[in-house]
Specification:
mainly alpha, two-stranded antiparallel sheet, 2 strands, elongated, TPR_rpt, TPR repeat, TPR-like_helical_dom_sf
Length: 925
């Protein structure tokens, strides 16, 4: 509990007063500034010493608190508080006019901080005020009891009886908490028994109690921190060790190396630069400083560090620094300056000794970039004459330079030199050779070296190389089987069940590989393989794009925008004549302002809750008003980023849906179509949307529930309200619905009202009324269509059947007149159809329906005398001709239907033999 209270005290001390928050920020900036200047170790003015008094238990500082705050972090906070107190004291010593009240408030705050610290005080001993030697009587005199216990503990330690020494040393700490030797001995004990974490914590206390007397302890702490992998503590201890022993360059090197390991390259560069300032002759520090500055983008600083050293040395050349300077200049495309530096070094240092090989090669590379190929080849002659394992890096650099600048023949010459050194060659070298041959249009050699490269373990997962090789093979004849094998998963993968050795994302799961493989399958008509290859990637892409669309739609206004809106409510003053009245603004603007005010209040309340929770947990509260709440969730990258944007991917979706329809996987096809249409933006061409909707309507007709395809059919009709083909597509989907959709009735009514002279919606509406036996309303719709198209055989048939059905009802008074009108329309249909088999059958069926069986028999007999040939079924707009509906021969012939109805008439009249003969002649297979 004391541990936790200490953490809370440290956390509360940093958040006790809002009016001092700026002071803290300024102090923190000063601390950071001191660190940038070398952590202030040279001046030695700010040395803080820890002193315990009161009832504080020093052992609490050797344990992590309940919130994971380590002891060194507690000391960092204590030093921070001490430095802040020092700054406030300096401000109070020279207060400005009217600041006395603020000074008293700061004194009161300091008193509360001291109380919360439980007696721990960090104070600064000024070096300027310190005199050499000690004051008389300043030596701490230990009590006899403490001296006795220390002696006993040392004896136990010498005898390696560590368990007996620990309680005695802890008792000494409670009696004399400011004695650093006790903590040091406890650290030694814990290190001997293997508890290095506790040893580090006791060493930390010993070092803080007497920091100037124990520089070796800080160095030991650095070694232990690095050994334990605690980089935060290692950095802290290194700064303290450097302050304790500023002359130790090894510590500074360790700190710089630690910054490099942590990726803090700017701090590493400054640390190495400090070493250069202390020891200008240190070549290693100067080289590392130049590298780090170059990594941070400070090229001029990097070059300056190296040039200053090289200009001052006219003898004993440091070729490594000259080489590094040339490399940095070349990396920044300063090849002329790099060549000048190399030539300058040659003229000064090479009167007796030869220029190093690496610099000669770099000079040649500079000549290549400057266009002096002949001069460069002279410098490269030594590589051709003497190439071995030591020169592989230089030869590769020359080959890469020629390749990058488009000199592929020269690049191949040096790549083959590398191949002579290593007969087997590696995958990267074979890849470079293949790309050179590809640029030289030598496809045969390019294919050979691509195959060698992909045959190595290092390059087998290179997707771009695999796709390039696949494109080359497709250009050759009869190479599709090789391409399929190249892009398919390896055979051993299908047989193995151990996935632990498999990479996280194998190359065969790459979307580009699957697309290329899918195109080959589709071109060869292998629809099942085509679907299995590309369907998962398309599904995942559509799902990912749906999630991304939701993220984009949930746009949150930033705090600055909300505050600007709230100003509308605050835009009136208390001394205004119109105070008490609402500000003049549009109602919509006022509504936005009130919502913005409510949102800001909610955010402020949430912020206060978080602040209270953090402070209660003993942590530091760092206010962040940088509109963090307005940051959106990270958008996920789909496997096929351009699926809905370019023609190639659109055709892929279309081919996939058609393939699914051909395989009778209708629901999957509709899923792809509907998701694609929902995600299509304004850049999606209208004709492509229409093509997808038409395909969706066709697929929907073949499903058990075509509701999913209804929207596609409706959209086609909206775009082409005068097209009979579009209405045929719409009605083909509607006719499959078991229950009428409410939106279908509403849509049909709107089309009837909008397009009053459009015939198809009248006919469809009449069909719907006929299905629910509302024959009078149906006849009215059919007659409206008849006024527009009186010569349509279909409309005449519909009017005739509606009037006959109406005549058979009970409420009609003039039944005979209605019946006669119905037959008149049927005979008009017979005339317009040129007495076709279908028209004759309809007349006979109507006569049978109203009881005129004698007339029905005559028309049925005429139907039996005719033979009707089969006609192809009409196709819907954009319907795929490859999707064929299987129909038996004779599906357009009505003789079987007519014979069956005729046998019913004979049977009802008692002529059973005649009825049996009709069935035998016309209805037997």
């Amino acid at each position: 509990m004391e541990d936790e209270d200490t953490g809370k005290a440290i956390g509360m001390a940093s958040n006790s007063a809002e009016d001092l928050e700026m002071d803290y920020l300024e102090d923190e900036e000063d601390v950071n500034r001191d660190e940038e200047d070398g952590n202030g170790e040279e001046d030695g003015d700010d040395v803080f010493t820890l002193t315990f008094h009161g009832e504080m238990n020093p052992l609490d500082l050797t344990e992590d608190d309940a919130f994971g705050v380590q002891p060194y972090q507690k000391f960092e906070r204590l030093e921070y508080e001490a430095l802040a107190a020092k700054k406030r004291k300096q401000l109070n010593d020279c207060p400005l006019d009217g600041s006395a009240k603020k000074a008293r408030q700061e004194d009161e705050f300091q008193r509360k901080v001291d109380e919360l610290m439980g007696g721990m005080v960090m104070w600064k001993k000024s070096k300027a005020m310190k005199k050499k030697g000690r004051k008389r009587g300043s030596r701490n005199k230990l009590s006899p009891e403490v001296t006795k216990k220390l002696g006993e503990a040392n004896i136990f330690y010498a005898k390696r009886q560590y368990e007996q020494a620990i309680p005695i040393l802890k008792a000494v700490i409670m009696l004399a908490p400011n004695l650093s030797e006790t903590y040091h001995t406890l650290g030694l004990v814990y290190e001997e028994i293997g508890d290095k974490r506790k040893a580090m914590n006791f060493y930390m206390l010993a070092s803080h109690l007497a920091p100037k007397e124990h520089p070796s302890l800080w160095k030991r702490l650095v070694a232990l921190s690095i050994e334990q992998g605690n980089t935060g503590m290692a950095t802290y201890c290194l700064s303290k060790a450097i302050k304790a022993d500023p002359e130790d360059l090894g510590l500074r090197f360790d700190r710089a190396s630690l910054h490099v390991e942590l990726g803090e390259y700017q701090k590493a560069a400054e640390s190495y630069n400090q070493i250069v300032g202390l020891c200008p002759e240190n070549v290693e520090a100067r080289s590392m400083a130049a590298k780090m500055f170059n990594t941070c983008g400070q090229v001029e600083q990097s070059i300056s560090i190296l040039e200053d050293y090289i200009k001052e040395r006219t003898s004993d050349p440091q070729w490594s620094l000259i080489d590094l300077l040339a490399t940095i200049l070349m990396e920044n495309n300063e090849h002329f300056k790099a060549l000048q530096q190399i030539e300058h070094a040659r003229s000064i240092y090479c009167s007796k000794e030869q220029l190093p090989l690496s610099l000669s090669v770099k000079a040649g590379i500079c000549h290549v970039h400057l266009g002096n190929i002949g001069q460069a080849e002279k410098l490269f002659m030594i590589l051709q004459m003497k190439h071995n394992g030591d020169t592989t890096g230089l030869i590769a650099a020359v080959g890469n330079t020629f390749m990058n600048l488009g000199h592929y023949d020269s690049a191949l010459k040096y790549y083959f030199l590398l191949k002579e050194i290593d007969q087997n060659g590696d995958g990267f070298l074979h890849m470079k050779i293949a790309r050179c041959y590809l640029s030289l249009k030598d496809r045969r050699q390019a294919i050979a070296f691509f195959n060698r490269s992909l045959g190595t373990k290092a390059m087998e997962g290179d997707v771009d190389a695999r796709l390039t090789l696949a494109s080359l093979l497709l250009e050759e004849e009869n190479k599709e089987d090789e391409v399929i094998k190249l892009l398919s998963p390896p055979e051993d993968f299908a047989s193995t069940t151990d996935t632990s050795s498999m990479p996280l994302k194998p190359w065969w799961n790459n979307a580009k590989v699957k697309m290329q493989l899918a195109r080959i399958y589709h071109s060869r008509g292998m629809l099942e393989d085509f679907v299995e290859a590309i369907l998962p990637s398309v599904r995942e892409t559509l799902f990912t794009e749906s999630l991304n669309q939701k993220v984009r739609s949930k746009k949150r206004l930033s705090k600055s925008v909300l505050s600007e809106r709230v100003k509308l409510l605050d835009n009136h003053h208390t001394d205004d004549v119109f105070r008490g009245f609402r500000p003049l603004a549009a109602p919509s603007e006022l509504l936005k302002a009130f919502r913005a005010k409510k949102s800001l209040q909610k955010k402020a309340a949430l912020k206060e809750e978080r602040k209270a929770a953090v402070i209660a947990a003993g942590l530091d509260w760092h206010s962040d008003d940088s509109d963090e709440e307005s940051r959106q969730q990270a958008l996920r990258e789909p496997p096929l980023p351009k699926l809905l944007k370019d023609d190639e991917h659109y055709q892929l979706i279309l081919d996939l849906c058609k393939a699914l329809a051909s395989l009778q996987r209708y629901w999957e096809a509709l899923e792809i179509i509907n998701h694609s249409l929902k995600l299509a933006d304004s850049a999606f061409p209208l004709e492509k949307k229409q093509e997808l909707r038409s395909l969706g309507a066709q697929v929907a007709y073949n499903t058990t529930d075509p509701t999913s395809g209804y929207d596609c059919a409706r959209f086609i009709v909206q775009q082409h309200p005068r097209s009979f083909a579009a209405w045929n597509c719409y009605y083909k989907v509607i006719s499959r619905l078991e229950n009428r959709l409410a939106k279908h009735v509403k849509f049909l009514h709107n089309m009837r009202c909008t397009h009053t002279d459009c015939v198809p919606p009248m006919i469809i509406f009449g069909h719907q009324l006929t299905n629910i036996s509302q024959h009078q309303a149906a006849a009215r719709e059919y007659l409206e269509a008849y006024k527009i198209m009186p010569d349509s055989s279909l409309i005449n048939l519909c009017v005739g059947t509606a009037l006959i059905n109406l005549a058979l009802g009970f409420r009609l008074q003039n039944k005979h007149q209605c019946l006669a009108q119905g037959f008149a329309f049927l005979f008009s249909n017979l005339r317009l159809s040129d007495s076709s088999q279908e028209a004759l059958y309809n007349v006979g069926r109507a006569c049978q329906h109203v009881g005129l069986v004698t007339l029905a028999v005559s028309y049925y007999e005429k139907v039996l005398e005719m033979r009707q040939k089969d006609y192809p079924l009409p196709k819907l707009p954009n319907e795929d001709s490859s999707i064929q509906e299987t129909k038996k021969s004779g599906y357009c012939d009505l003789r079987r239907e007519a014979a069956y109805n005729l046998h019913l008439i004979y049977k009802k009249s008692g002529s059973l033999d005649l009825a049996r003969q009709v069935l035998k002649d016309h209805c037997t297979l």
